[in-house]
Design a protein that fits this description.
The protein is of the alpha+beta class. Helix content is 38%, strand content 17%. It is globular.
Length: 383
């Protein structure tokens, strides 16, 4: 781990979270503008937008974008993926939308997966996969529903399929032979990667050093102030290389060591980072539990003093806030947590519980939160 410099500066929690909110673009109301190009800009700035299957409310990839693009429409993401091809799906710490401009930083992982499949979904032999690729090359893109020759099997785990071909498709996807060219809910359309992007020759894969640099720069851009854990979220094997790069940048005086109030965890930030301004005090965000601001729980607790628990995985009798609780950010404070559910048949959003967090003035925030809930409900119902 890089040594702590005697010139380490100490940030208050308020300063640290304002830097993070500024980097996450949650400190202003319309940071990326509007329209389809705003989606491309948001994904490029954040570095990734996580995908998740849970649809108690709108799935998190749409929710994360809506939190930063007030005029966001689901079709904007479809256009970015399938028409503009400015984003693609691949694994970061989870399956995510990633900027297409960054694809060369993932080609090495695809090559490594081909050499030694590691994902839980990598089932089936290479010969079977080649036959599947030949079919797509001849007949065009397909979904799992287009494959009707499977002999159904019992699911091996919750996320598995009774169709063995699902594993073949996902193996070819992680190998980089196939790309998800379109998505309708959780139904994915697979296409040959080279044909989707119109490549006559594949881009040159980034070197390991370039991937490490990319990982650090992505975190600095989207987090403002970083730690090894925040840079390498769920990717411990990368920590040694990232730590070495951080040490080199500290020596070059590109980065400076940072301490955060009440924490012994080393952090760093760009030496020329601007002083963060206070976010709009009445700006309300109802955030996904998979939002980049929320997903790193220890970091969230350190910066905001809020300990989020994803209680969908907690037995019902032990839940305190609810099955699918969403943190509510007002200005630079998490002031509430709500368990929401969209009843699409009835055409309304249900508030199953509302809990105040911290020492905020409930009456002061309630009207602003209710106004944002109305906008959030309209988005949930596709209005």
């Amino acid at each position: 781990m890089p040594p702590r410099s005697p010139r380490t500066i100490t940030l208050s929690r308020e300063q640290a979270r304002r830097l993070w909110l500024q980097a996450q673009r949650l400190d202003t109301s319309e940071p990326f503008g509007a329209g389809a190009q705003a989606t491309k800009a948001a994904v490029e700035h954040l570095g990734y937008v996580q995908i998740d299957t849970i649809n108690v409310i709108e799935r998190c990839h749409h929710h994360i974008l809506f939190s930063r693009i007030p005029a966001y429409e689901r079709g904007h993401l479809a256009q970015a993926q399938s028409v503009d091809k400015s984003v693609f799906e691949y694994w970061t710490h989870a399956l995510s939308y990633v900027p297409a401009r960054d694809i060369r930083f993932f080609l090495g992982a695809m090559k490594a997966h081909r050499a030694e499949p590691r994902r839980w979904s990598a089932v089936g032999g290479r010969d079977e996969a080649r036959r599947l690729l030949a079919r797509i090359r001849k007949d065009g893109p397909l979904t799992i529903r287009d494959i009707d020759s499977d002999v159904l099997v019992e699911k091996a785990h919750l996320w598995a399929s009774k169709k063995p071909s699902k594993g073949l498709l996902e193996r070819a996807f992680y190998d980089g032979d196939l790309v998800i060219s379109a998505r309708a809910g959780m139904l994915k359309t697979y296409e040959l990667t080279d044909r989707h992007f119109g490549w006559e020759k594949r881009p040159t894969p980034a070197s390991e050093r370039q991937v490490t640099t990319y990982r650090l720069d992505r975190a600095l851009r989207a987090q403002g102030v970083v730690s090894l854990d925040s840079i390498c979220h769920l990717d411990a094997p990368s920590k040694a290389a990232v730590a070495e790069l951080i040490e080199a940048r500290v020596k070059r005086r590109d980065l400076m060591p940072v301490g955060i109030e009440d924490s012994t965890v080393p952090h760093w930030m760009p030496r020329e980072a601007p002083d963060p301004e206070a976010p709009q005090p009445d700006l309300v965000h109802i955030l996904s539990p998979f939002d980049p601001l929320i997903i790193q729980r220890r970091r969230l607790k350190l910066f905001f003093g809020y300990d989020h628990v994803f209680e969908a995985y907690v037995p019902k009798p032990k839940r305190q806030f609810g099955y699918f609780t969403l943190p509510v950010l007002v200005g630079d404070e998490v002031v509430a947590a709500m368990d929401l559910k969209t009843d699409r048949t009835a055409g309304k959003m249900l508030i199953q519980s509302w809990h105040w967090i911290g020492q905020g003035n409930a009456a002061e925030h309630k009207a602003a939160i209710e106004e944002e809930l109305g906008r959030f409900e309209r988005f949930q119902l596709g209005e």
